[in-house]
Amino acid sequence: MDNVLNVFRLAAVPPEAEAFRDEVKAFLRERMPDTPADVRSRTWMGFDAAFSRSLAERGWVGLTLPAAYGGAGMDAFRRFVLVEELLAAGAPVSAHWIADRQSGPLILKFGTEVQKQRYLPQICAAEAFFCIGMSEPNSGSDLASVRSRATRCEGGWRLNGSKIWTTNADHCDYMIALVRTSGAPEDRQKGLSQLIVDLTLPGVSVRPIVDLTGDAHFSEVIFDDVLLAPDALIGEEGSGWAQVNAELAFERSGPERIYSSVVLLDLWLRQLRSAGASAADVTLAGRFATHLATLRNMSIAVTAKLARGESPVVEAAVVKDLGTEFEQAIPALIEAAIASNPGAEIDAELYRTVAYLSQISPTFSLRGGTREILRGMIARGLGLR
Q1: Residues paired with 175 in a beta bridge
Q2: Residue 250: which pLDDT band, with cuts at 50, 70 and 90?
Q3: Can you give the pLDDT at residue 1?
Q4: pLDDT digit string, tens, across residues 104-118
Q5: H or E element: which one contains 208?
Q6: Average per-residue pLDDT in the chain?
Q7: Which of 266, 249, 318 minimizes the C-alpha distance to 102?
Q8: Kind of pairing, strands 192-198 and 233-234?
Q9: pLDDT exceeding 70 applies to what percent of the chain?
């Protein structure tokens, strides 16, 4: 247990990474001067390819990828600063998000040199957007029950099956899909592999799913006899389970698992400063500040481990679990605070923002692994099961 918990000892963002923060803030002030909070609250679900390309022009997509592949070759701390400022401002980063955060690092770690030369420069230029094909219909969070299958054939691989809850599949160029290449679903983690799927290929159908807010971030993707090239396989055949777990460490370890509701929090605090705050409001604000400071320090500690080249799978799961609870609490508690004074006039922008986040926040503990799955991982990491 000590080895797992030691990673959360206090760490600090190095001065050179902090100096980078001013540059990011200046860029965001220029690019997002008047965007309302209810739009900014969509942040890493907001798809804006032009904005992503403006970041790429500054070298801020694929920030940690090597310069040889088009990246900036910077460390994990600078990426932490960049992500923190983008999310705090509510920047629309969804277009490049998955490719930058996990698909690029996955290809760098497990891909062939041909795959690296082909895909990584496109990712760093925000010219190729990726989505993740993990979840499947009727499987919930049980990734080991994957039924989509790729079989070797003349000319490469033949892929059949489907994926669901795939973020931005209708806008993306490629999917990295976890599929079965041998055995049966009963074999669980054995026989799983990852393949890069060009979503423009014949036999690929993408069906957007409209959510409660009226947005369509998720899609169902159907594969009907899709022919993939021989080099579509990433890494070793049959090693998909280990690779996915390495990928999910990148997905769960960043500050995006803390800041999804921070635009609302900032707006509410600004309203309190102008309209006055009750004692209950002050107490609630202090509670938010305490939780945020603690979670941020934990996320920085995980970033320090990434900077050392380690893979903080369990630690990232802890931050993700606690972070999404915090993200969900912000709209719920602010909504309750507003309702506690029914005679007060409600600012329209605040009303729209809290309404949106109240609707979307239940998904925060689903994306990137459900709370139950994460707690099982944490228990195994602590030797409790």
Answers
A1: 131, 197
A2: low
A3: 44
A4: 999 999 999 999 999
A5: strand 204-209
A6: 89
A7: 249
A8: antiparallel
A9: 95
Q: By C-alpha distance, which of 149, 145, 150 is closest to 188?
A: 145
Within 10 angstroms of residue 341's Cβ, the number of other Cβ atoms is: 12
Confidence of residue 163 (pLDDT cuts 50, 70, 90): very high
- What confidence score (pLDDT) does residue 215 get? 78
Comparing CA positions, the residue from 352, 353, 358 lying closest to residue 336 is: 358
Q: Does domain 243-381 have CATH number 1.20.140.10?
A: yes
Task: Let me know if the fold of 132-238 is the same as that of 243-381.
Answer: no
Selection from 381, 117, 113, 72 nearest residue 252 by Cα: 381
> Could you give the CA distance from residue 380 to residue 385 in angstroms, rounded to a whole number?
5
235 neighbors 192 (Cβ within 8 angstroms)? no
224, 158 in Cβ contact below 8 A? no
Distance CA 303, CA 18 (A): 14
pLDDT digits (tens, 9 = 90+) for 308-326: 877 777 888 888 889 999 9
- pLDDT of the residue at 2: 47
Identify the pLDDT of residue 325: 94
pLDDT over threshold 90, residue 227: yes
> Using the 8-state DSSP alphabet, how is residue 196 labeled?
E
**Residue type for position 327:** E
* Residues sharing a CB contact under 8 Å with residue 73, sequence separation 6 or more, in sequence order: 64, 65, 66, 67
The rounded distance, in Å, linking the Cα atoms of 178 and 260 is: 27
Amino acid at 40: R
- For the domain made up of 11-129, the CATH class stated in words is mainly alpha
Residue-wise DSSP of 319-381: HHHHHHHHHHHHHHHHHHHHHT-TTSPPPHHHHHHHHHHHHHGGGGGTTTS-HHHHHHHHHHH
Q: Is the dihedral of CA 221, 136, 240, 97 positive or negative?
A: positive
Every domain of the chain and the residues it spans? 11-129, 132-238, 243-381
Q: For residue 142, what are the contacts with CB-CB under 8 A and spacing of at least 6? A: none
Residues 125, 186: Cα–Cα separation, whole Å = 41
> Where does 132-238 sit in CATH, by number?
2.40.110.10
Lowest mean pLDDT segment, chosen from 4-13, 59-68, 102-111, 233-242: 4-13
